[in-house]
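Ligand: magnesium ion. Inputs:
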Amino acid sequence: MKDEIPECQPTPSPKWGERLGALRKVPPVFKMVWTSAPGVVIGSLLVRLIVSVIPVAVLWVTRVIIDSIFHHISYRAALPKFFWWLVVLEFVLVAMATSLGRVIEFCDTVLADKFTRSISTQTMEHASRLDLTRYEDPLFYDKMERARAQGTDRVMMIQMTGRLIQEFITTVSFAAAIIFFSPLLLAFLIVCVVPAFLGETHFAFLGYSLNFAQTPARRQMEYLRVLGGSRESAKELKLFGLGPFLIGRYKKLSDTLHLQNVGLAKRKLIFGTLLTFLGTLGYYGAYGFVIHQTVIGLLTMGQLILLTGAIAGASANIQGLFTTFSGIADQSLFLTDLVEFFSVQPQILSKPGALLAPRPIRQGIEFKNVSFAYPGSRRKVLNGINLKMEPGERLALVGANGQGKTTIVKLLTRLYDPTEGQILLDGVDLREYNLDDLWKEIGVIFQDFMHYEMTASENIAVGRIEDANNQFRIRGAAIKSFAESVIQKLPKGYDQLLGCRFEGGMDLSGGEWQKIALARAHLRDAQLLVLDEPTAALDARSEHDVFQRFAELTHGKMAMLISHRMSTVRMVDRILVLENGGIAEQGHHDQLVKDGGLYAEMFELQAASYR
Ligand SMILES: Nc1ncnc2c1ncn2[C@@H]1O[C@H](COP(=O)(O)OP(=O)(O)O)[C@@H](O)[C@H]1O
Ligand SMILES: [Mg+2]
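Predicted complex:
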């Protein structure tokens, strides 16, 4: 863990171009919305259309009612014949508005649900296609996390857009009523509201920038929070007395963020209040003007009611319109990561018309001058590796930590492509093969294999998910890896939920997990099996048994074993000793010991510790 606290200074003042530019990200998202539920979108728009003109219609009816009453009282004029029907009409309009409001709410809920569902699955699908590199790059990982959250949070934006359309039509209808009497009045109202809108977007953008800058700190806080309350860390935290240390570090980070957030909120309070005041001023200016016109007899009472209602409605709606719009602009800033995330394409792909992997493998695998540096680093982890693996041959890779053993496995399985050189399968570059088909022929158990919080049976079935319901084959694999005896001790046997995350789960020891993981390799019907130190937590005796069994069962298959225990690797056909990015020695155990090189030295060291 790094010691310094990530800096999160608010980014400099946002530019208008940037703010509007972000709106370009909106259409692709609306496309996603549309495809997730076209019927609901149309329905909701139609209803909003009706609802949006009801307010002005109500005002108009009120105006006619008031003027009729006024004439009736002042000049003893008869009430119009339809007078009471006007009252009924107004009631119907208002009742319609409330019930249609409910319909809109319903449509929004359905749409939000459909959209969230479709965006979540799309995000998962896209993430599963990305290269491993992306996951190992912390910056991209941040982006991915943000995109994940952003996708589902953008539901609000969709509802806002519906509201925007509605507010727009309502405003236009009110504006039409105002223009009918005085166009100048409308212009005046708009001028008073625009500053509030600009202020609103300005702060929205600042909020986003701050949020963005705080992401690394938040990630650290999340890490500290999880660390402070997780089962894995509890033992060490208690004994080392790390609680106060972690809490102190968490507090320091959260204090920094708090100060930044409050700073922004204060500025928003001051400027926001000023700008809203301007809006209110505009409203009352217009109000005074209309009252004056009525007093001097230029407007009737009904018109006064209509206009004041329209001014109040219009200024509320114009303000709402701007706020909603800036809300959308603000939300669209958050889409950047989502849209960028979806635009990142995997580099490691099957070519069009790629070959199917050979079955059976006839010539084996060959590394030709393979060098490799991890992306973003110049250091060559592997340097000019040449290595041949015959069909049916079992190899072992040995070497100290960090010599590149796992990297070789990642290249062999095309999780990465070599920086230089080629890896050939039956004389053809790995890049020429269809990826999914290639992966079908390879079974790998990594040293950091997954503990799935699923049943024991499913934990084995992940090795060949097509066999998830084939208890016979799953059990067969478990017997081969010695996992059967572990599973028999579980209360629910193969149906026992493993891990502690969910209720009723049972955790296993490291060695027991490894036996379960090894069953995956036995279940997989692959031509090349790779075990990358998945047995480190087994005691020497168990590991020996497991490998012995593995060697017997994979007889005639290609296998690559990585282990630190010499007693284990001696049973393979050929041992490769990796050092400084190259192959330092190779040969059979006896030969290597006789040569008295690096391997002999390592062997001697281990043997001595057992004497
Ligand atoms: N994702 C990665 N990004 C950058 N460097 C890495 C990454 N994974 C491993 N390395 C570096 O590559 C070297 C070889 O690692 P690895 O193949 O895991 O070694 P081994 O399996 O022999 O212990 C190490 O020095 C390690 O620091
Ligand atoms: Mg390794």
